[in-house]
Design goal:
The complex is a heterodimer. Chain A is mainly α. Chain A has eight helices and no strands. In chain B, a hairpin with a 2-residue loop joins strand 4 and strand 5. Classes of the chains: A mainly alpha, B alpha/beta.
Amino acid sequence: MSGFLEQYGGEIGILTLEHLWLTGAAMLWATAIAVPTGVWLTRRPRWAKPVIGVANVLQTIPSLAMFGFLLPLPWLGERAARVAIVALTAYALLPILRNTYAGIQGIDRSLIEVARALGLTGAQRFFKVELPLAASFILAGLRTATVTCVGIATIAAAVGAGGLGELIFRGVASIDNRLVLAGAIPAALLALGVDGALGLLERWFRVPTVQAAP
Amino acid sequence: MSAAIEFREVSFTLPQGRQLLARISLTVDEGTTTVVLGRSGSGKTTLLRTVNRMVDATCGTVLVGGEDVRRANLIRLRRRIGYVIQETGLFPHMTAERDVGLLLEAEGRPKEERLRRSHELLAAVGLDPGQFARRYPHQLSGGQRQRVGLARALAADPAVLLMDEPFGALDPLTRAEMQDMLRSLLQRLRMTVLLVTHDLDEALLLGDRIVLLEEGRVAAHLEPDAFLMSQEPAVTEYVRAFHRGEHKAAEERR
């Protein structure tokens, strides 16, 4: 065992970092796209169904097929990491988009009314009232998306994008369970760690609700 | 006395065609409290909301301080009108001191000024800032929350205060306390208040004038003692309905 770690320890470390980079970059992109879109949808609810529908369809594409579809595309296909990041971004969109939309839509209407009546501007209403009240909801979507992506990123190795999937694929090909585990265990720990950390953040932002007047 | 709020032939019709306000003309003098009474659906909340343009009158004009509200800058108009609603008006993610000072925060005033002002206002509505300033709404009782809501409405020194069933969700004892507090506060501040309620006692206690709305029309606009004496059928009906319990108990005593 110690011999195995000696041989592969360095590689596991590098692949873990690669895995984190793929997932992290995808999450940044997905957040940058899905949060503003979700907010925009709350202003144009008519569009909510079709837009969320598209994200939903993206989600249903099998990951291996998605990587396969993207690979032949110009520019994107030149670097496997690009393919991986775009695919992971597509998977992360739905949970973030849906939770952003639902989180803001779910805010007690009377609070929005009060914010308007107080004379807050649109931007102030958004940053001081809507965003903080929806924050834990949005973070919950981010958490689901991240955990999913940490898992799906292992498939990215199939197109040569690196990450912990590489050990798994190599292990499967050479029928070496130790290699499979060397990829799977860090990936699982990564998922658990991210889940825990974002869960804490989500709880931090959770807003206590007021009970009916006693 | 000049008019702080003036309604000129104000009508409001829902898109589906139902008329909630029918050519209401009414004047609220500066520094006085006018209570709008009426049953549910009589249009009293809608009337109140035309003042800060939470709804726009379909016809007619509303003037605040002589200025047509529709010509005024909406944000500035709302900032000089205090607004208190029944329950749930406090932001659950804000402490009392932040909520009270929110408007000053929105205007970019420095933090010390905001805190000083909100502590001053919390004290004015009977809440010890040392004890309550850092509390969130869920850490306050219904009456305390309503006090914070009132303090917030006063933060920007508004010319006009609109109150929509402010004490509707409170038990009778807490409500009485709140009414007393509000009464002494209003006497001190000499503000112009438009208060909506269906509680006759509240109207008699707080109002300099009482307006009775019935199906979107002004059925009466009187001073409290004249209101009680009025032979106007809509008024006598309302007064009688309010005291039914007392009458029944009195009859049983006989």
